[in-house]
Design goal:
alpha/beta; Leucine-rich repeat, LRR (right-handed beta-alpha superhelix); 13-stranded mixed sheet; 4 helices; 12% helix; 15% strand; elongated; coiled coil; cell projection; leucine-rich repeat; flagellum; repeat
């Protein structure tokens, strides 16, 4: 289980990417229906069944099989771990009968929607990765027990379906490389790690409800201000806004709302880095910061920042 969890994209720096493999024009991919022979070759991990009186294989590996139909999987109701990556699947409705699923990977297929709403039946599913498909929204996707969800490399444009009532236990959400232009619609108060790199996000909206969020990754978007950060984000420790269009100190003033908890900040590849005393101006806003970009905050930098803060406070009192 732990080896499979390592596949989930949740890196701190966000340098890895998930992309659907491209097939060359001259390369022919064999597409086929799922057969019992293929299933038998992919089965492993013999365990007791729920009543304790029988045994069944609970793990199935069907990646790279050229599948475009998985109807035959419906009768394998004891499967808990299933890998369907790198096939040609468009329909996941046969999964509805696999009600004991805990772990599901469907990366690099051609799924564009959740027809048949199979996930309504997968009430024990804790880990789901559907990176590199053709999803444009999340309608029909629910996960009452889901803790980690990876939808990187799709074409998702809106997040209206991300409600606490459908994803009450979600801790990590990966939406890197989609087509989002806003953060609005994420109503998940238990969420701790949110990865939104490589979208087209211009506005930070709807973040005030993310009270337990510790990691927010927004690298390579189109933000020109951090207005939208909220003082309700009382657990935020890591923020990455590398490669946006933050121009000056005014663009990052909203960082003060999370100054009590933020420990690591990545601002590199923004225009404001060219400003004189760039690091000092950031530390004045964030006196608790431990790391800025790739470098730890030095004692000398922190001392100078605190002196500047005290000087500014004295001047305000005189006024």
């Amino acid at each position: 289980m732990s080896d499979m969890e390592e596949d989930f994209l949740s890196d701190v720096e966000g340098d890895e990417e998930t992309r659907q493999d491209e097939v060359g024009e001259d390369e022919k991919v064999q597409v086929c229906h799922l057969t019992l022979e293929t299933i038998s070759q992919g089965l492993s991990l013999l365990c007791r069944t729920g009543n304790g009186l029988g045994h069944a294989f609970v793990k199935m590996d069907l990646k790279d099989c050229g599948l475009n139909d998985i109807t035959a999987i419906s009768s394998f109701i004891y499967i808990r771990f299933l890998d369907l990556s790198n096939n040609q699947l468009t329909d996941l409705s046969p999964l509805a009968s696999l009600t004991q699923l805990l772990w599901l990977k469907v990366d690099n297929n051609a799924v564009a929607s959740f027809n048949g709403h199979p996930f309504e039946h997968l009430t024990y599913l804790q880990w789901l990765s559907m990176a590199g498909n053709r999803l444009t929204d999340m309608e029909g996707l629910v996960g009452p027990a889901l803790e980690k969800l990876n939808l990187a490399g799709n074409g998702i444009q809106r997040l209206n379906e991300l409600q606490d009532s459908c994803f009450a236990n979600l801790v990590t959400l990966e939406l890197r490389g989609n087509q989002l232009d806003t953060t609005d619609g994420i109503n998940l108060p238990n969420l701790q790690h949110l990865y939104l790199a490589e979208n087209s996000i211009k506005h930070l909206e709807g973040l005030e409800g993310l009270e337990r969020l510790a990691t927010l990754h927004l690298r390579d978007n189109q933000l020109d201000t951090l207005e939208g950060l909220s003082s309700n984000m009382k657990c935020l420790q890591y923020l990455n806004v590398r490669g946006n269009v933050l121009l000056d100190k005014k663009a990052i003033e909203s960082l003060g709302r999370v100054s009590k908890t933020l420990k690591a900040l990545v601002l590199s590849e923004n225009p404001l880095m060219e400003a004189t005393d760039y690091r000092l101006s950031v530390l004045i806003i964030l006196p608790q910061l431990k790391r800025l970009d790739k470098d730890p905050v030095s004692p000398d930098e922190m001392t100078e920042a605190l002196m500047r803060i005290k000087t500014s406070l004295r001047q305000k009192k005189k006024c």
